[in-house]
Structures are given as structure tokens and as C-alpha cells.
Amino acid sequence: MKTDRWDVATPGFTEVDLVSHSGHSASGEFAHTLNVTDMHSTWTESRAVLGRGEEAVQRALNEIATVLPFPLRGVDSDNGSEFINWHLQGWCEQQHIQLTRGRPYKKDDNAHIEQKNWTQVRKLLAWDRYDTHEAVAAMNDLYGQELRLWLNLFLPSVKLVKKVRVGSRVRRIYEAARTPFERVRECAQADPEQVAKLEELRKRLDPFQLSRIIDRKLDRIGRLANRRLSPKVEQQTVGEPAKPTRQVNGCGKAARSAISTFPQPQQQQTFGYISNVSTTGATVTFLNGLTGQKNDSLDSSRCLLSEPRASPRPVFTEGSRCRSAGQGFA
Fold it and tell me: What angle do CA 59, 62, 66 make, to 5 degrees?
């Protein structure tokens, strides 16, 4: 067991991790998803296990190794006891697989699999609790069939090629978007027989039909969740105003969520500053000395914007800190 830095150009070196499906209670035994992603091709496989025992994890990893279209050469994990144990190390030595780990409390060491944990597990199964054999079997029925085909054969992704520093900024350069199967097909280390079977299967499959089947299976899995220990879903009654909901922007680790707790005031830009708009417009002073309210039809080149009237609402200047109304602008 050692730490290592991989800059791989061949498939087979993978990152692995467990995603828990415990709901809001970590007590008892519940399901986990073993997620495995290849660093070179981005090929991803998943299997569900009940609990996090070393034997169950090793069996799931062995099952994944048999369906990969290339030989498994390396496994990189975190420091969880489900991976750091003599049972898994003995299996890796027997299969001639390199076993490495990341540094403690450094999730960026496993950045590839952490991204897949969100995009390919959490966004599908959310944070519900699954703690029955029936639920685990339903999850494996999805992971081992339609989901793996849809993700690896039809879903393109981009890979970072290099970073270029331009002054104080870093410019990231990516390769053209390709599916994991297209990357595997170009590798000499891939199994030609499995690649030919996947190529034929890809021609016969309809990605839209796969998507519909995935949705139906996700609905069935959702009905098997332990609702008592899962996050509560608020029911909205008829006539009740809609409550603020969680809004998610982006994907992977870049995804940010925010819960709006109060109505946000409308913001409007008016010649050099952005203010929380009141019902009255800004006062305009014309070159002939007349004053009036700002109108969109006025020619801004012929008028000057006077100081805004005092207001209890804060006024924000562009690129500067907040100023209270009536203090003027620099």
C-alpha cells in the first residue's frame, strides 16, 4: 500500500469510492453505492452493496472488473476501512492490481470519483435511505444494465488537457467532447472482443428509450426508500403560496445551492451604479436647468444624473463596498 501520483495515458487505472444511502440517520445497516471511474477514458461502473463490509466491497469490485472493456490495472481509494484492509489488498495482489490511497482529509486527491459521486449517484438517487435487499437488487438492476450503457456509450464528456496562465488568470483548455466508449475504442489496451460487442450494441440501442427505462426504474427504486428515515418532502396545499425551494446551479463540485428566505428586491443599473429600485425613478437635470424623472426615451448624452435622494435602502456602487443612501459617490 502506497501513495502515488498518476498521470496515466492508458485505461485501467481507476478511482473508487462508496456513496452512502443512509437518509438522515447513520444507525443500522443501509445501502452503499460502490462507484468506480477510469481516469483515462472516464468509463464508470457502479454497484450497490448492503453495508460496507470488506467482503461485500471486494465482491462488487470483482464483478465490475469482469465487465470492464479493458483490464483493471490500479485502484485508488480514500482511507476508509472498506478499502484499507488485508482482504482487498490480498485480492489486488492476486489479480496484479496496484492499490493506492489518497491522503487523509484531502478529497481533491480523488477528484475524479468525487465528481462522479454527484453526477451519477446523488443526482439520481438523492439522499433517501435504502436499507433492504429488495432496494439493493433494484439498484443493481439499474446500475448493471441501462444506466451503464447510457452513461458510457451515449453521454459525451470533456477532459482537461492543460492549464495556461495568462497574467493573473488561469485558462483551462479541454479536448473535444467524446463518450467514454469512443476513448476506449482508440486504446490498444482495450479488449477487441468486448469493444466489438459494445459497438454492435450501440448501433441497436436507442438512447431515448434507455432514458425512459431509467426513469421508470428510478421511480420503482424511489418507492422502496425508507421514508421514515429519509428527508421529508413538504406537501403544498391548494391555495398555499409556493415556498422557497433549493436551486442548484452547475454540476459536480461546482454545484452551489441556495435557499431564498425572503423576496429579493429588483435590481436595475442606472448610469454608474446599481441600486435597489424604489417606485420613483432617478431625478434628471437637463442642460437648460429643468428637472424631471428619468425616462427610457430620454437621450442620456444630453442630461446629467443628479445625486440620488436619501433612501433607507442600501446603494451599491460598481466594484466598491456598500454605501448608505445619501452619502454620495466617490
Answer: 140
Q: How far apart are the first and last CA of the chain?
A: 61
13-229 CATH: 3.30.420.10
Please answer whether residues 300 and 284 qualify as being in contact, where contact means their C-beta atoms are separated by less than 8 angstroms. no
If pLDDT is split at 50, 70 and 90, which confidence band does 203 have? very high
Please say whether the dihedral angle defined by the alpha carbons of residues 295, 297, 300 and 301, taken in this order, is positive or negative: negative
Of 181-185, 285-289, 292-296, least confident by mean pLDDT is 292-296
Residue pair 172/163 in contact (Cβ under 8 Å)? The answer is yes
Cell readout for 46 is 457502479
Q: Does position 319 have pLDDT exceeding 60, yes or no?
A: no
Residues 324/275, Cβ–Cβ less than 8 Å: no
Residue 184 in grid coordinates = 476506449
- The residue assigned the cell 436647468 is 289
Q: What are the distances in angstroms from CA 136 to CA 7, 144, 215, 216?
A: 35, 12, 17, 16
The per-residue pLDDT of the chain, averaged, comes to 79
Judge whether residue 295 has pLDDT over 60: no
**Which is nearest to 135 in space by CA: 32, 278, 59, 3?**
32
- Asked if the model's pLDDT at residue 296 lies above 50, the reply is no
**Sheet containing 98-101: order of strands:** 44-50, 31-38, 13-21, 74-77, 98-101
Q: Residue ranges of the domains in the chain?
A: 13-229, 267-324
Report the DSSP pairing between strands 13-21 and 74-77: parallel
pLDDT above 70 (res 1): no
Q: Cell numbers 489518497 label which residue?
A: 102
Whats the size of the chain, residue-wise? 330
Q: Cell numbers of 238, please? A: 391548494
